[in-house]
Amino acid sequence: MSLEETATRIRAFEVQFVPSLLQTADYARAHVRLGDPDISDADLDRKVHERMLRQQRLHSGDLKVWAVVDENALRRPIGGRSVMRAQVEHLLLLTERSNLTLQIIPFNAGGHGGISGAFSILRFPEATLPDIVYLEQLTSALYLHEVRELDRYTQLMDRLCLEAAQPKESVKMLAGILR
To answer: Which residue segment(s) compose the domain that 15 sits in?
Structure first.
């Protein structure tokens, strides 16, 4: 979280879920419970609250987020139909923000290089701090900062942005999913 708090730009790719910075509380609750079905209500509430606090920077406008999401993540009803509907409506509202770019990779795009899993690239304001690739796992996370690794993930993100529907088309896709 401290790395995310100091980042000025986050580029995120998700294949299974809506990126955590873009989740509603109900979606986040369902998402966290999927990863830990035995979590206590108190711990679940704490994790959801932390996730919502992390989103404040997005809403304040001092963080730029560029998210690429596989259509699969938007079609799978995490938390049920009503939770997913509210989540897609929330995404539509977020696309109106100037500090957020959202692109969807449609099913008809076929396979893509991001199929191996979600990742985020964090950029920091200080030129002396290198970008970091963040890979979240079930019980831990990896932070990659070697130039070779960072270059591969940056190139992959660039390719995913080219393969995804453009932002305006992605908004139309979200509206279609709601229907």
So the answer is: 2-178
